[in-house]
Amino acid sequence: MKLDGRVVVITGAAGGIGTALARRFAAEGAAGIVLSDLDLDAVRALAADLAVDAVGVRTDVTVEDDVRALVETALERYGRVDVFCSNAGITSGAGIEGDDAVWQRSWEVNVRAHLYAARAVLPSMLERGEGYLLQTCSAAGLLTAVGDAPYSVTKHAAVGFAEWLSITYGNRGIRVSALCPQGVDTPMLRDGLDAGHVGAKVTAASGAVLSPDDVADAVVAGLAEERFLILPHAEVGTYLAHKTQDPDRWLAGMRRMAAGFTE
C-alpha cells in the first residue's frame, strides 16, 4: 500500500516511533492523520507541525470506549481509515516476581489495545473491502526479551494476534503487518537503561540501535510491499531462523547472553 492520499490513525504518537511515523507518512502525502496519545498537548503540537491535515486526540488505548471514539473521530473527519497503526506499548523490566498489576498493565497496553483497535476499525474497512492494520509488536515478540517477562509474553501474544487477523481477514481486503524492531532510540529504551533493566541493556548491546526515523523508513517500505513481518533490523530475521531451526541451541545461546548481564 502506498501512503499517498491515505488516511492514517496512529496511537502512541507523542514520541519515538509514533512521531516518526507521523512525519514520514505526511512526507509521503497522506491525506489526513489522526494522532493519539495520553499526552494531548504533544499530539496537538505535532498535528500543527505536519504539512498535511492532522488532528491530535487524547486516547487511553486500554479503554475500549476511547479507542472506539478515536476511530469515530477519524471517520467523521475523513470518511474512512485506510491504515490504523496500533503503536502504543510499554516495558516493565519485571520477571515472575512482578506483581499482578504490572502483568495486567502489560496485557492491556501490549495486547488488548490491538484487540480494541481491530474491533473499532475493522467494520468500516470490511465494508469498503480494504484496510491496513500495522501493529508494533517488537522483535521480542519473535525472539524474547531477556529480563522482562511481561514484555516478552505480551509481545509474543501481539504477534500471534496479528497472524490471526491476517489469516482471518486477509482474503477480505485487509492487510496486516507486524512491526518488529529490536533496539530503537526511544524514551522507552532510554528509560529502561536509566532504570537498569537487564532487558534494555541486552537490547542496546545486541546490535545497532536505530533511530525512530530509520524504523519509519522500514515501515514505508514494508507497507509498499505489504509484508507481514517488517524487520527494521535485518539480523532479527537471521536470529528467528536460528531459533526455529534449532530451538535448544538458540536457548543455550540466549542463556549465555543473559548470564553476561546478570552475573
From TrEMBL:
InterPro entries: NAD(P)-bd_dom_sf, Sc_DH/Rdtase_CS, SDR_fam
Keyword Oxidoreductase appears in the UniProt entry: yes
Protein name, entry field: SDR family oxidoreductase
Family, as annotated: Belongs to the short-chain dehydrogenases/reductases (SDR) family.
Superkingdom, natural source: Bacteria
Keyword terms of this UniProt record: Oxidoreductase
The organism of origin for this protein: Planosporangium thailandense
